[in-house]
Design goal:
The complex is a heterodimer.
Chain A lengths: L1 H16 L4 H20 L4 H25 L1 H8 L2 H6 L5 H35 L4 H6 L9 H23 L4 H16 L1 H5 L8 H13 L9 H5 L6 H27 L5
Chain B lengths: L1 E14 L5 E14 L3 E5 L6 H8 L7 E6 L2 E2 L3 H4 L2 E4 L11 H11 L4 H14 L15 H12 L6 E5 L7 H16 L3 E6 L2 H7 L2 E6 L2 E6 L9 E9 L3 H9 L5 E6 L2 E6 L5 H10 L3 E9 L2 H11 L10
Parallel strand pairs in B: 3-8, 3-9, 6-7, 7-8
Antiparallel strand pairs in B: 1-2, 1-4, 4-5, 9-10, 11-13, 11-14, 12-13
Helix pairs in contact in B: 3-4
The chains are: A mainly alpha, B alpha/beta.
Chain lengths: 268, 320
């Protein structure tokens, strides 16, 4: 565990030094600029739009970090040959893989946490800009803590995306790994179509194949409760817990696969 | 107990995209390196030196055969606590400073913060990195990176240290410093295994060598005992050598070859049959002034060429 921690801290340090956290500045500027513009243009819908936009931005910025850093976690070490001296130290290959994963997880956690704080800060400010009677007409308060459930699931989704990117990067180059990760992410968001495939095709074989894919591929749509929280529709804690558990099990399987592939790899 | 021991260690790669063919990178290497030896692992580029080192560090897995370091199979994490490795043309995390990189590596050995700082400071002093230690490695020259590479290889006071082409990219001063470091390590009782394609590096340092060509071992032992590197004559450079004196020495069979270097300056090849001091005295009596006298022996390059010419060049496995 100690070794994994050291590797993880090094990944975090790399992301800080490589200015990955600059995205936070972009995020803050975007939110503040949009809220200012909305104040000039619309009436009544401002807070809802900021909620939509803020949650979508947290997910999107996180996705970009998870994919583009995730695919480089292993590949970059091999490409720049820094892995030679590292693996000659008393570190097991699985500790390397898990440390890399934990490091990017930590980077994402810090990112998502700061973006969430900035998001709530903008909403708290907007809350002060409206009279009591307008606020009473909103479906949920501006700083509704229920939105944290959506943020939590976004975070688990990002951890899952990172595990996918890491998995592909243990045996392929960065372009292929990025394409495969994005591909799975897109398919995973339209997973429900696979489940109901028999409604659109006659072939039973095709329907079974689609159903099999539905169960095998990650179901990213399940992690998306952003619309529900914006409209203050109920998102039960049990749903959040079960979806997070699904994510954790999927991540564990991907990490096991990554470790197994990486353990037998030759570094020519 | 040997420090390093390999038994028929073999590595094949598959090359080619559409119809992959096996390529023999290392062919049944059997080697013993004793504790405390400075062992030179020599061979031209592509001979299989780096492949062997990577097998000994389990960066790659053998196709067959086995390798032990310090009496344990390679890849044993406990063994890796006791060894060090400098890769060829080392590259590190360029966003870290030299100090941070070494602290990171030291942390993997489980040293506490105070011990890490002490080791890192002492090592950076030893490899001659001063105030630059607080610069990010992306600002380091190749020679400076090589020094950092050496520091990280010995951060744990290893019992066995593997250096892959440690002199590569270094200026003469840097090469001398590496030689001194290798000798200091030897004096501390460490086993040093280093690969090189430069014979003079090995001559200056090694108690024993192994020579590799086309992935096969073509010679091993103490350099001085290896027939290929015995002295086969002398090269004498003289000034003021008159044609008459040259003819006289030639007629006595004391000069195997004479190359005019301009004016009355000559490079003479003297046979081993007559002691060189007698020939020197003889020529001096005729007014010649000796400039230099060096032993002539087969160079590593000659040795390679002979073995490369002799060895089959096809490293495939036939119709596989």
């Amino acid at each position: 565990m100690r070794i994994i921690g050291h590797v993880a801290l090094n990944v975090f340090k790399e992301s800080v030094r490589d200015k990955v956290l600059y995205n936070l500045v972009v995020f803050a500027v975007l939110l503040i600029a949009v809220s200012y513009l909305l104040g000039q243009l619309t009436a009544g819908q401002d807070v809802k739009i900021i909620k939509d936009l803020g949650l979508a931005a947290i997910a999107t910025f996180g996705l970009l970090i998870a994919v583009f850093i995730g695919i480089g976690l292993v590949w970059k070490e091999v490409e720049r040959r820094s892995i030679y001296s590292l693996l000659s130290k008393p570190i097991r290959r699985h500790e390397f893989v898990l440390g890399k994963y934990a490091g990017l997880g930590l980077t994402l956690l810090v990112n998502v946490a700061i973006m969430t704080v900035a998001f709530y800060a903008v909403l708290a400010y907007m809350n002060t800009q409206f009279p009591e009677n307008v606020r009473a007409a909103w479906p949920a308060p501006a700083t509704d803590p229920g939105m944290l459930r959506a943020v939590a699931l976004v975070f688990v989704e990002l951890l899952l995306v990172t595990a996918i990117a890491l998995f592909f990067s243990t045996f392929s180059g960065p372009f292929l790994a990025a394409a495969l990760t994005f591909g799975l992410w897109i398919i995973g968001h339209f997973n429900a179509d696979l489940r109901n495939f028999e409604a659109v095709v006659d072939s039973r074989a095709a329907a079974y194949a689609a159903r099999a894919l539905y169960y095998v591929l990650p179901n990213f749509a399940a992690f998306d409760v952003k619309t529900q929280v914006v409209y203050a529709l109920p998102v039960p804690a049990s749903y959040v817990a079960m979806t997070a558990l699904y994510g954790v099990v999927y991540i564990a399987m991907l990490l096991t696969g990554s470790v197994m592939i990486f353990a037998r790899r030759d570094f020519k | 107990m040997d420090a390093i021991r390999t038994e028929a260690l073999t590595k094949h790669y598959r090359v080619g995209f559409w119809r992959p063919r096996p390529y023999v990178a290392l062919d049944a290497l059997t080697l013993r390196v004793g504790r405390g030896d400075v062992f030179g692992f020599l061979g031209p580029n592509g001979a299989g030196k780096t492949t062997t080192l990577k097998l000994l560090l389990q960066l790659i897995y053998p196709t067959s055969g086995r390798a032990d370091v310090l009496g344990r199979p390679v890849g044993d994490v406990d063994v890796r606590r006791r060894i060090g490795y400098l890769p060829e043309n080392p590259c590190f995390y360029d966003y870290l400073t030299a100090e941070e990189l070494l602290e990171y590596f030291a942390s993997l050995f489980g040293y506490g913060p105070a011990e890490r700082r002490r080791r890192v400071a002492a090592l950076l002093d030893e490899v001659g990195i001063g105030a630059e230690r607080r610069l990010q490695l992306r600002k380091f020259s190749k020679g400076m990176l090589q020094r950092v590479g050496i520091a990280q290889a010995v951060i744990n006071d290893p019992e066995v240290v593997f250096f892959d082409e440690p002199m590569s990219g270094l200026d003469p001063l840097g090469r001398r410093e590496i030689r001194e470091l290798v000798l200091r390590m030897r004096d501390r009782g460490a086993t040093v295994f280093f690969s090189s394609h430069v014979l003079s590096d090995a001559e200056a340092l090694c108690s024993r060598v192994a020579i590799l060509a086309h992935g096969r071992l073509v010679g091993s032992g103490a350099l001085s005992d290896m027939a290929a590197f015995q002295v086969r004559g002398w090269e004498l450079v003289v000034n003021n050598l008159t044609p008459a004196a040259l003819e006289h020495a030639r007629s006595l069979g004391r000069i195997a070859r004479a190359d005019a270097l301009g004016g009355s300056r000559y490079a003479l090849e003297l046979p081993l049959s007559t002691p060189p001091e007698r020939i020197l005295a003889d020529l001096a009596a005729h007014g010649a002034q000796p400039v230099s006298l060096n032993p002539l022996r087969e160079t590593l390059e000659d040795f390679y060429l002979r073995h490369i010419a002799a060895a089959p060049t096809d490293r495939g496995l036939g119709a596989a």
